[in-house]
Design a protein that fits this description.
By secondary structure, this protein is mainly alpha-helical. Helix content is 85%, strand content 0%.
Length: 214
């Protein structure tokens, strides 16, 4: 049961990432779409829709029909891809692929730690969440300060936070597999959490090591 849920979780996580990257790359190849998204208020609308989708899916996924949960997850991945398209404009594709592999490697390492560790990682989840809120506030402040050194430090700390969340979320999926939750819905829960962990690790690594097109 546990291995089956893990397999479904990673399959759906991969599907979500694939939808996001294909959508982002496709939009980046269309200058008209890029202009419409980033030169108008559409980007703000998309960002709000993205936030609403992830909050709604996180809150309701357990009670959803499995096909509805899958549709919402794919929809969220697609909307994320629309806002994600900027990285294909800002960074070289070779750099994006290189960072993608690095992110996948460290994600796998911490995922294995979460899967095999005997430590109860729920003890650190509260601290991780507190640190995440603090980092978000600092990023908002830095929008006005625009200090590149501060931004670098925040990105490094963010990577560490989401690596911690990766290990925690893997362990959480194992624990939830023993509860009376539909395995298909649980796979979407896990896929969404791990998708968010991976995307954040990838984006912060890209901001530090990515080669821009300029």
């Amino acid at each position: 049961m546990e291995n089956k849920i893990m397999s479904k979780t990673f399959i759906w996580m991969f599907i979500g990432l694939l939808v996001t990257f294909i959508t982002g790359y496709g939009v980046a190849q269309n200058e008209t779409m890029l202009i419409n998204i980033f030169n108008n208020s559409i980007y703000i609308v998309l960002a709000i829709v993205e936030l609403v989708l992830v909050i709604y899916l996180s809150a309701k996924v357990r009670s959803m029909n499995k096909n509805t949960a899958r549709i919402f997850f794919i929809l969220y991945s697609f909307v994320s891809g629309l806002t994600f398209s900027s990285i294909f404009v800002l960074y070289k594709i070779t750099s994006i692929l290189y960072i993608f592999l690095i992110a996948a490697t460290v994600f796998l390492i911490f995922g294995l730690i979460g899967y095999f560790t005997k430590l109860d990682l729920t003890k650190i989840s509260t601290y991780l969440m507190m640190a995440l809120f603090a980092i978000i506030i600092c990023f908002i402040i830095n929008i006005f300060i625009n200090n590149s050194s501060f931004d670098l430090i925040l990105s490094i700390i963010s990577i560490l936070i989401f690596l911690g969340f990766t290990a925690y979320d893997i362990q959480k999926i194992k624990l939830l597999s023993n509860e009376n939750i539909n395995e298909d819905n649980l796979a979407i829960i896990g896929a969404l959490n791990l998708y968010l962990d991976y995307i954040n690790i990838f984006l912060h690594l890209l901001s530090i090591f990515g080669n821009s097109k300029d």
